[in-house]
Specification:
Elements: H1 14-29, H2 37-52, H3 58-74, H4 80-99, H5 103-118
Length: 119
């Protein structure tokens, strides 16, 4: 369970709650670009279906939205920052692929490209 998470644990059994958060971290670990409340809400609703085999009710969807929004506002470094990092990594990798850069070229111009991207 994420310390301080506000997913509706009074409605969700602890094991479901824990599985949902674990699956969100797996998505971030594999490079998913989860940034907005909507990104996380769609992900957690999808994971809820995978874990329980049922669709979340409208009430549960609203509780998910509120919990995710609150958690990401209070702890942006825990989830949102990772999603942003994943987005930047994907964008850089896509550019490298489109430009057909080899490792030597990346070493020569990659750092300057990243600096320009940040500004």
């Amino acid at each position: 369970m994420i310390n301080g998470s506000t997913l509706p644990d009074t409605i969700l059994p602890d094991d479901v709650h824990d599985q949902l958060w674990e699956r969100i971290f797996v998505r971030l670990d594999r490079g998913d670009s989860l940034i907005t409340t909507q990104d996380y809400q769609l992900a957690i609703e999808s994971e809820y279906v995978a874990v329980t085999g049922t669709s979340p009710t409208q009430t549960l969807k609203e509780l998910f939205r509120q919990a995710i929004q609150t958690f990401n506002t209070e702890h942006p470094d825990r989830l949102v920052a990772r999603g942003v990092q994943n987005s930047v990594t994907r964008a850089f990798q896509s550019g490298v692929f489109k430009l057909d850069w080899d490792p030597t070229r990346i070493e020569q111009v990659g750092e300057n490209s990243i600096e320009r991207f940040k500004t």
